[in-house]
Design a protein that fits this description.
174 residues, 3-stranded parallel beta sheet, globular, alpha/beta, 6 helices, 36% helix, Rossmann fold
Length: 174
């Protein structure tokens, strides 16, 4: 994730949401570390904050991150899925909000979380990128997305930033 975020230019034309499975109490430190090493402003998401181009928001541990129809963040403790934050929950809300103006990225991890979110983005007309099998520590989450036809392209992390930037530029040209 760090490699991808640090590869985005300071004038990146979209908001970025980071939903990371992480132990309780570590999401603030993750946001601070990413902020100290990247080109974009990065902060822990807060209830009601607005999506802004070039801003990276990290989901706080113990909360699902959802995007409301007005582009504001809602943090929920409701048990929507077993794990919080849930990637599927965040991606599905982003797909409903941004539709074809959405790009989803799913990285290495255990389980299936994110597969249905990627499918929601793809069905809404958005673009989906999964980390390729060769570079994953655990290919579970990207594999699940590939298996259900939710992935447009599988790439190594070192090329995801460029592809993400290209897709965002295409969206902005509209």
């Amino acid at each position: 994730m760090h490699h991808i975020l640090s590869g985005l230019s300071p004038d990146f034309g979209a908001a970025v949401l980071v939903v990371q499975h992480i132990a309780a109490g570590f999401s603030r430190g993750l946001a601070e570390w990413l902020a100290s090493t990247g080109n974009l402003p990065i902060q822990l998401a807060e209830e009601g904050c607005t999506l802004e181009r070039g801003m990276v928001l990290v989901a706080p541990d113990g909360y699902d991150l959802l995007v409301r129809n007005n582009g504001r963040i809602h943090l929920s403790r409701e048990p929507l899925l077993l794990q919080r934050p849930a990637i599927d929950v965040a991606m599905q809300s982003v797909a409903a909000y941004g539709r074809q103006r959405t790009v989803g990225v799913l990285l290495s991890g255990m389980g299936r979380d994110g597969a249905l979110g990627m499918l929601a983005i793809r069905r809404a007309g958005g673009y989906t990128i999964a980390q390729d099998a060769a570079t994953c520590t655990i290919y579970g989450m990207p594999r699940a997305a590939v298996e259900i036809g939710a992935v447009d392209v599988s790439l190594p992390p070192e090329t995801i930033s460029a592809t993400l930037s290209k897709q965002v530029a295409l969206i902005l040209k509209g």
